[in-house]
């Protein structure tokens, strides 16, 4: 057995044991000011949907590599179940330090699962290159920074606390892109970072699962469920239809490309996450879904050829044009919609007040992106120190380095 295998056996289990021990101590002691975890709540149906979406949906969504299926689903499950507990701990600790009253247990748990979506998205960018120790450290750092970013938006920019969670796609995508830029690229002859019809099929299965439960994700913390659910479904439906249309139009032979369709299916749900609660006309949601799908398809068509090679980005799962660009579109749509609505309410008389509201909205999204990029770069440098046993580039995208894999599975 190689020394690298031994080093992982001596580090990964003990790191998990250490974290789980700290989490058990937290659950035993608790923090003053934390709400009653067993108080009645109506969150469970939506919470169950979001849990299915994050565990099952994203787990299979990441199965895009032909020899990395065990790691895609297995590491995703490990990070989610460990990260949800860490997210509750981080939020309880920071709320205690701010001397505030935290939400009751079910709502806090729901926020933790939603926050983990940022980590899952970032994992898609470094998929196949980061080892379990690096992924666990990334999870801890990203959860803390995302919570700090939310605090800045809510405290200084007066963004509603529940709405700050909908920045999760924006933060996760650009944190992951900055992170992956610090990892060495695979050698030119390595062909393990490609997909097969079997891996594409599993990935599409996960995408459809995420698609089905996305309305619950956008409405889980909303006071009124009707508008977010209806608007999200309409945006998702239009983006799915547009995905097939644009994929055929942009291909040379007029055939559908599964990679483009898979990415664009979710674009509408990402783009409308910022505004699903406030859109009052269905046609607005449908147009937003159409534009999101167009940005996703055209982005996957152009960025992989021009943008990624110039910046040396190895975006394994295409999180930039699946989550990043649609989230930017959603941010712009939120600013425009806020300006129109507030302008109508004030009859365009108080332009200084209107300008301040627009500035606040822009500031929240710019702060989120800037924090994600800067901290993602720093985290990428930290993850590549010798102590964390970075995977050699020749071992990228291979289950065999971490899992017991049969020869038949490898050949498939």
Termini separation (Å)? 25 Å
Reported for the largest beta sheet, the result is: none
Secondary-structure arrangement, i.e. CATH architecture: Orthogonal Bundle
Number of strands: 0
CATH topology: Ammonium transporter fold
Helix content: 55-70%
Shape: globular
The overall average pLDDT, rounded, is 85
Structural class: mainly alpha
User: CATH superfamily, please?
Assistant: Ammonium transporter AmtB like domains
In the CATH scheme, the class would be Mainly Alpha
- Unreliable segments (pLDDT under 50, ≥5 consecutive)? none
Short overview:
This is RHL protein. With 412 residues, the chain is an all-alpha fold. Helix content is 70%, strand content 0%.
